[in-house]
Amino acid sequence: MPVIFDNDxxxxxxxxxxxxxxxxxxxxxxxxxxxxxxxxxxxxxxxLIVRDxxxxxxxxxxxxxxxxxxxxxxxxxxxVHGKNGLGDIPLPAPHSQPEAEPAAQALVDxxxxxxxxxxxxxxxxxxNIAEALRLDPDLPERIDQVIVMGGAFGYHQHRGNVSPVAxxxxxxxxxxxxxxxxxxxxxxxxxxxxxxxxxxxxxRVVTEGIAIGQTIHGNDTREYVSSAWxxxxxxxxxxxxxxxxxxxxxxxxxxxxx
Length: 258
Known about the structure:
9 strands; 8 helices; alpha/beta; single chain; Inosine-uridine Nucleoside N-ribohydrolase, Chain A; nine-stranded mixed β-sheet
C-alpha cells in the first residue's frame, strides 16, 4: 500500500513513523512536515533525525509553517512535546536535508507517479493537503483515502482538548480542515475496521467565532432539507476503539522491525 505520511513530528508522530516503516504492507513514498507540535523548522528537523537514526528510506518534504487565513498562535505545546518536539531528549544533528520541493507540491507529484491510488496518513493539521488540493483539483482521483488523526465529536464525553469543542490538530488550521472534509477526498477520521467502531457522516469544521475548530457531522439524511452538509462527501468517523487491540498491533509491528 503506497503511503504518504503528513505530520508535525512530535513524540506520537515519531512512533507512528516507525510503525509505518516497520509495516510489511506499507510502501512509504514520502514524509511531509508542517507546523504543529513545534515550529516547521523543528518538525522538519525531527523528521530528518528520525529518518536518519532508523534508516528510513523515504524523502522528507518541508511543508506549511502557518495556517491558512489565520495568524499562527503564540507558542507551541512544549508542555506535551518539549521544546525540541521530542520530549527534550538529547538529539543528534540530522545528516541529511529535506527535498527542495515543498510538501504540498510533493503530495501532488508523488501521487502522479505512484502507479496506483495513494493513502495519505495525516497526524497533524491538514494545511499541506488543503494546499495540494488548491494546486491540483484532480488530486482526489489519485488518493484512495486520507486517514486523519483529529476532530472531536463528543462520543464518550470526549470533546475538545484546546477548547470545550475543538481538538488541537483541527483547531491548528480549521479552514484547511474544512476544505479537506468538504472536498471529493475520501476521509477516514481515525479508522481500521477491525479495531474501531465507525459511522459515516458528512463533516464540516467551524472556521470562526467562539467554536472555531469544532468538527460537526451532519446526521440528517433528508436530501430535500437544505444544510451546510448538502453535497459534502461522507467521512468515516471513529466513535470507539479497541485499545488493547491497538497496543497489540503496535507491538507486533515493531517486533517485526527488530
